[in-house]
Design a protein that fits this description.
single chain, mainly alpha, 11 helices, globular
Length: about 260
């Protein structure tokens, strides 16, 4: 659990620094840095998705995962969780009651908290580094991948929290649960995880990372009719290759 714990702790520290140390940076610098990070995220996500050796499985996973996620409406659930956390911590109460503030301002604060929580949670929990790093921590006691991921996540949370607020800090909770869960579960399912499964799951996860990057660039494309991607509703797609390849292996084994 050392790797997941360090990763979560770095996100908390860097988010606090972003909220209270560099929050006052001029908006134009904040905007250009967000776009730069968005472009980098798109590149990293697309590059990672090229590792897939089963393109049809990747497409099938994205479609099936999107249907499942939309039925469950994970995006709505995660936003509700973010709003609940905000209300419990009274992040938006003062702003809503301040003299001269309108309801739309309060809603904007709430949206910012939820957006920061949801976007950061998905970004930090998906992709090959989160999956492979957690597996290495659990199976081999090797935390180097998650330590490297911590540096990347810390840099991103520093900028994200400066623009989206304290919601980014709370993404450390799903990061710890998700990566810690994989690390612990890997001990019980080590016989069922093959390199093919890990590779295909990582490829799908990287496509979701690219979607996060596109969402950061979306203001530039609104004129062309694009809207934000509900990336949370695509999360089930990550697990489709696991189910498919496990069933395929079982069928092949039964045929002999």
């Amino acid at each position: 659990m050392l790797g997941p714990l360090v990763n979560a702790l770095v996100i908390v520290i860097c988010s606090l620094a972003g909220c209270f140390v560099i929050r006052g940076i001029p908006p134009r610098f904040e905007e250009i840095v967000k776009k730069a990070i968005g472009l980098c995220i798109v590149y990293v996500g697309i590059k990672g998705s090229f590792e897939s050796q089963r393109v049809l499985l990747l497409i099938m996973s994205m479609v099936a995962g999107a249907v499942i996620g939309e039925l469950i409406n994970i995006d709505k659930l995660m936003n509700r969780l973010g709003d609940w956390a905000e209300k419990k911590l009274k992040m938006g109460g003062a702003a809503a009651d301040a003299p001269g503030q309108t309801k739309s301002f309060s809603q904007g604060k709430s949206k910012g908290f939820s957006q920061g929580f949801v976007s950061a949670s998905i970004l930090f929990c998906t992709g090959s580094m989160a999956i492979v790093g957690s597996l290495q921590s659990g199976l081999q006691g090797n935390h180097e991948t998650l330590f490297a991921k911590s540096i990347l996540d810390g840099s991103i949370s520093l900028v994200f929290s400066a623009s989206l607020g304290i919601g980014v800090l709370f993404s450390a909770i799903p990061v710890l649960v998700y990566q810690g869960g994989i690390a612990l579960a890997s001990l019980a399912i080590r016989d069922y995880l093959t390199p093919d499964i890990i590779r295909e799951m990582s490829s799908v996860g990287n496509l979701l990372v690219a979607a996060i990057g596109f969402n950061f660039l979306i203001p530039e494309f609104k004129a062309a009719g694009f809207s934000a991607i509900k990336v949370a509703n695509l999360i089930p797609a990550i697990f489709i290759p696991w189910a498919y390849l496990a069933i395929e292996a079982a069928v092949k084994g039964a045929s002999f």
